[in-house]
Specification:
2 copies of one chain form a homodimer. Chain A is of the alpha/beta class. Chain A is built from 7 helices and 6 strands.
């Protein structure tokens, strides 16, 4: 990718180096492919820099394990074994968050999503991770399962040097407003339109 | 991500299972972020399925190593050591392709791009890999360094079960036409607009 040049230098009293260090709030939205894949790609890149990664999948049924989970957890294991890269935690809804519920015990999705956000909020306050992937988090925001103003306020004023990437369709305008980097993935053409279903290795 | 449902079932004489196995030609284009990151994320996912991965970076100056290269090469090493995942080859232009040129020897970019494409074409004919990432390949196509009709013809009629993802801005309409899945990444908002430069761990 070409080296980017800022189009304007802001009058914020920061040096370029200081500005470069500002932690980012990123949003991947739109109806196209690649929102989560690009977010997990960022996590891979961040792992390589030794960052502490926390992934939180806010999907209704995350019982199936995607390839990125296996690979990122394997990278987290490598970190423990050899010191390469950084630590990785991967949490997902669907069968209960790993920190809150016993196997087999079920909660409704709204409650679970709210619990997930409460945990992320605690971790942000504690500066637990360097990069948070809040995968598909736009949906609990859209469905009223979490308070959007609380989310936006918390993310906008998170302490320290914590990067956050939120994925999912129809990102709330208030979230877009406080984000530093918003990318919309738009479907131009998709094989499902001609009747081809999802494929192992590509879709999961 | 929600499970996709095809909107129409084509009358192509294939069963759903057969159609599901059709190898995909994918294009990530547009001016936004995430084109390459999502492609490398696909490679991570494919590695986890045991696929043979070939990455070809058609960038003018690929002397710097991005995090994904380190991680994917590390995963390729894991494959050799433990049998996990699949094999990985990562090739890049800039200081000469690894298969063609001695260290320090330079070719002009147009020649190098054409050599890169000729090698990819040989590998496609030999069914060398399961997934090809042709990173930033839209640029040599746009600049006339490779013959677009040759590229389109070769990719459209590649033998066997080989997946290809092409990234870069301004994808040629002929490429889009033969692709199965085209995603446009659109910049909605970018921190560079407010004078923040690229960041380690995020941009590379």
């Amino acid at each position: 990718m070409p080296q980017g040049q800022p189009v304007a230098v802001p009058d914020d009293g920061l040096t370029t180096a200081q500005r470069r260090q500002l932690p980012l709030l990123m949003v991947h939205t739109g109806d196209g492919k690649g929102k989560s894949t690009a977010a997990f790609g960022l996590a891979i890149r961040a792992w390589n820099q030794g960052w502490d990664i926390g992934v939180f999948q806010f999907v209704k049924s995350a019982k199936w394990r995607i390839g990125e989970q296996t690979v990122l957890e394997r990278l987290g294991e490598l970190h423990r074994e050899t010191g390469e890269g950084g630590p990785v935690e991967w949490h997902k809804m669907g069968a209960g968050w790993s920190w809150s519920r016993k196997a087999g015990e079920e909660a409704d999705h709204a409650t679970e999503a709210a619990e997930g956000w409460a945990e992320v909020k605690r971790r942000l306050a504690a500066e637990a991770h360097d990069l948070y992937v809040l995968d598909e988090f736009t949906y609990p925001m859209a469905w009223g399962w979490v308070d959007v103003d609380d989310v936006v306020e918390t993310l906008a004023h998170r302490p320290g040097r914590q990067y956050v990437v939120v994925t999912g369709r129809r990102a709330d305008p208030r979230l877009v407003d406080v984000a530093d980097l918003v990318t919309e993935m738009t479907k131009v053409k998709h094989q499902m339109d001609r009747g081809q279903k999802g494929q192992r290795g590509i879709e999961w």
